[in-house]
Amino acid sequence: MNKLFFNLVTKRIVATLSALLVIAIGCGAGVWQLSRANTKIALAANLQARQQMPILSANAGPWTLEEVSERRMIARGQYIPEAAVWLDNRPRPIPPAGSAIAQSGFYLMMPLRLEGKDEVLWVNRGWAPRNNENRETLPPVHTLNKVVNVEGIVFAHPGKVFELGSGKITADINKPRIEQNFDLVAEGKAHSWAQSPFILRELEVGTEDGLLRDWAPLTSGVDRHYAYAFQWFALAFAGFLFWLLSGLRQYKRQELTNGD
Asked: Is 207 inside any structural domain?
């Protein structure tokens, strides 16, 4: 046994170190993918628990982000459609059945002037597909010109995508515009109005406005993390197996040579 260990390890230092490196990388990456999956599951469970708490009223504020984050909230007010921001390069939250490729489109961010308060609340009203023939053409969306009730979930921001440049607001803020990302603080400064320190992601409540709100659950992607973890662990096992079998093959050849 000592002789076998000597031939597998001591006489194959480079191969052993290479195998250990592959095993370490594979196991480390696999554990990291599992931790990502567990984190998503925990976040989803926390979100579900917070959504079961009593529904808050935006008009009863002021509220801080810490007080209302991931809570259900109802806001009553009137939209300001001329200040809308269309967030580009946003895939459809849940692709249609049978489609493996997510369709690209926009999130519509629109300020809602709260009734009875000198305050604005930004609402992520939903997703709309992009015009593939003309990227500058905005999707048709119906906005009621009256006071409405909006129900949704509170978040810090609508999500971010990679963006080149500073992301400063350079377009006319008095008409709808297309942006890559949404900066809540910058919007407040640009419009010089008081606003809530969070956004409201609208829930589907039967409104026929041309927007989709089939938001993907926070657990989306968990299966992918498990698949990646399996691949990394398989790579680590394959590295160990290759090191072991190649060493045993070399050991047997040496034994046969010595026997001759």
From this structure: no
Mean pLDDT of 102-108: 87
Span 213-242, average pLDDT: 86
CA 98 to chain centre: 22
What are the φ/ψ torsions at residue 182 (nearest 5 degrees)?
A: -115, 125
Total of domains in the chain:
2
- C-alpha–C-alpha distance, residues 148 and 175, integer Å: 21
- The mean pLDDT of the chain is 85
Are 149 and 69 in a shared domain? yes
pLDDT in tens, 129-187: 988 778 778 889 999 999 999 999 999 998 888 776 555 666 677 789 999 999 999 99
| CA–CA gap between residue 208 and residue 186 (Å, rounded) | 31
H or E element: which one contains 63? none
Neighbours of 49 (CB within 10 A): 10
Look up the pTM and report it. Answer: 0.71
Our CA angle for 29, 20, 240, nearest 5°, is 90
